[in-house]
Amino acid sequence: MPKKTKNSTNFFTKTYTKVKPYFFTALACVGLVLIISALAVVLIFTPNPNRFNPNNPNVFVRNNFEREVFRLTNIERVNYGLPRLIWCNILATAARTHSFDMQENNFMSHTGSDGSSVSDRVNRIGGIPGQRGVGENIARGHQTPQQVVQAWMNSEGHRANILRATSTHLGVGFVGVEGEHRLSTNWTQKFATVV
């Protein structure tokens, strides 16, 4: 009897030693497959932050364009001895929504396609506590942040909005459509005085 147990133990020990390397290799392969599958699911189902309208993949926003317009606007203000504006996500959302509206409905106006005013669009998404006034610059067709800020600075009314001493906050919205030869672009700046 004891002899039989010894042989059984040897059989299992030998089998385990032979299987052990394959077992860990198989386990590593299964783990790798699970990791790759999880990454694929994340990539497929995570919305692209540069896409404004998932139903139209040609329409997109460029957050870096919006931030560059913000930066260039503050440079202009500092050059005129004015304080820098503070970035405001509420204003940026309202600005981006208006740029998208102008792009989708092929118009350029401070009145939205639904009849909304500049302040309506800010208030619709909750407004800003302490908000005392709202202003807006819009533009179409400029290919870069530098071009659009320069165009606004060359226009008396737009320049007045940029250089308004009482403004404290700014949000920028850019929406573009990739065309055959160039971008179709819509730009909106939303200014607010917050006390």
Describe this entry's structure for a reader.
By secondary structure, the chain is an alpha+beta fold. It is 52% helix and 18% strand. It is built from six helices and five strands; from the N terminus they run H-E-H-E-H-H-E-H-H-E-E. Strands 1, 2, 3, 4 and 5 form a five-stranded mixed sheet that branches. A hairpin with a 4-residue loop joins strand 4 and strand 5. Helix 2 runs parallel beside helix 5. The radius of gyration is 29 Å and the shape is elongated. It starts with a helix and ends with a strand.
SSE blueprint and pairings:
Layout: H1 2-45, E1 59-60, H2 63-79, E2 86-87, H3 89-105, H4 118-124, E3 131-140, H5 145-153, H6 156-162, E4 169-178, E5 183-194
Parallel strand pairs: 2-4
Antiparallel strand pairs: 1-4, 3-5, 4-5
Helix pairs in contact: 2-5
